[in-house]
Amino acid sequence: MERALAVIAVLLIARVRLGRRALARELATLVPNLTRLFAGLMRDPRVPFRAKLVLGGTVLYLAMPIDLVPDFVPIAGSLDDAIVAAFALRYVMRAASPEVVAEHWPGDPATLRRILWLAGGGTRRARP
To answer: Are the beta carbons of 47 and 96 closer than 8 angstroms?
Structure first.
């Protein structure tokens, strides 16, 4: 969880301080890209059924208007969705593989690398 907070804080500070348009665009398209990623993973036959259930639950949580941490709470209110998505991706990466996740990512590969790092690395494979 500390890594999640640190990554998001660094991304936001970099966006504000450096004013980089590409980074700002990737942050703005993060939710649509995650939506497309999750939809693609749910249709992929290489992703186990239990991982698809986790993805489906995550999509429902992200779509719910009620969050565990209300959005008006500074910083933490907007981070809960990112943390839930990161944990779902971590589970999918362990159940399938980072390569399967990368195949479905529609955005910048650098952003995917940051998300996979946030989710717990991109080198682990599922146990047989």
So the answer is: yes
Residue type, 22: A
Length of the chain: 128
- The Cα 88–Cα 70 span in angstroms is 20
Specify the amino acid at residue 76.
A
Ramachandran region, residue 79 (left: φ > 0; alpha: ψ -120 to 50; beta: rest):
alpha
pLDDT digits (tens, 9 = 90+) for 68-102: 777 666 666 666 777 788 888 889 988 988 889 88
One-letter amino acid identity for 25? Answer: R
For residue 31, the tally of other CB atoms under 10 A from its CB is 13
pLDDT per residue over 2-21, tens digit each? 565 566 667 666 666 655 56
| Of the candidates 56, 59, 48, 63, the residue with the CA atom closest to the CA atom of residue 93 | 48
Residue 16 identity (one-letter amino acid): V
Q: How far apart are CA 62 and CA 75, in angstroms?
A: 17
